[in-house]
Amino acid sequence: MGLLKYKIFLLVVLLLISGCARSVIKYATKLDENPYQMYGKIPSREFYLPAGISDSLVLKWESEANGSFTNSSVSVYEDLVFINDLSGRIFCFNIESGKKIGSLKYSSGSVYSTPIPYRSKIIFPVALEKDNLTELIIYDYAQGKEIEDIELPGRVLTQMIALNDEILFTSEVGIAYKFNSMGKKIWETHTRVPTRSSPALLDDLFIFGNDEGEIIALNSASGDSVYVQKIGGHFFSGLTISENIIFAGNDNGFVYALNVKDGEIIWQFDTGARIKMEPSVDGQNIYIGNLNGNFFSLNKLNGNENWTTEFRGILNTTPLITENMIILPNVLFEIHFLDKQTGDIIKSILLDGRAKLSPVIHKNILFIGYDDGVLRAYEFVN
After folding, report:
1. Can you give the pTM of this predicted structure?
2. 131 CB contacts (<8 Å, ≥6 apart)?
3. Per-residue pLDDT tens digits for 3-12
4. Per the structure, how many domains does the chain have?
5. pLDDT tens-digit series, residues 218-245
6. Which of the chain's ends, N or C, has fewer CB atoms near its CB within 10 Å?
7. Is the dihedral of CA 154, 157, 163, 167 positive or negative?
């Protein structure tokens, strides 16, 4: 082999190796007593910030991931911001500057779930499209190395729940799991029904919907079945629990309020089109949109309609509710700020792509994201 051919061959080999290699996140962080650790922040996923906000914002930074986002959100631990994307990557950015700390690359799959950070670890599932498997990854970012890579049947397409030092989640093939943060499996329960509805948890009840229109509650300590209620219509929307009531939307366009103890229907409301987003709640009302672009405020106790606002396009990303405003992503390249009492649009931020991430406000910073992999951080101006 000639010298030129050898150099070309060596270059190709190096490119192939670098293309397959997993990159690194390595960073020492302090203990965070109040992290934004999971999608919806708390296990019951209320998507509510008990504070008033201004509609005056200034762009703090903008950074890019590699692929498109799912309808997940950022997670935050101390000064680190984590985000997943559909190209099989986890990105880590500095919260103040937006500078990329590092990334992890799993090119054989996609990461649909918001990564869950602990003190020095991050946990996330990589869904392997071709093999219908998931690799549950536990990564130590203080050491910059992977601790566990646990292979599970079926793809994990839904959001995970962090509970103390443990995580709970479901897979597409209808298996529910509980692991600790070191990768030890505590239990697994087979429901044998495809599951694409993100779960929620209240006290000792781990609750989720499935493709057969059932609401399933498991004991979070043991994984034992507590109840199964047939409600009707595929549940692709995740669940939200507030004041002992489960709120969920289904593929038939209905919003349900269910008793958390037994899953019995309290009330139902027909929005007229398929629902993909989780309901958001505050003390009095729930807020939910459908794929026809209709956004509703409903009384939490009886399901009566307060108001409806109609948008062009598709509403499939869960909004953030504050004391005075709603921050609502719209697929048609906008983030809307709505008056919570009337549903009127106060302000809209135009984007260069489809809004994807559920908005998060943490440490007075608003995080939003849109295609293709653009993450923005805004500061509020009082």
Report:
1. 0.92
2. none
3. 545 444 444 4
4. 1
5. 999 999 999 999 998 999 999 999 999 9
6. C
7. positive
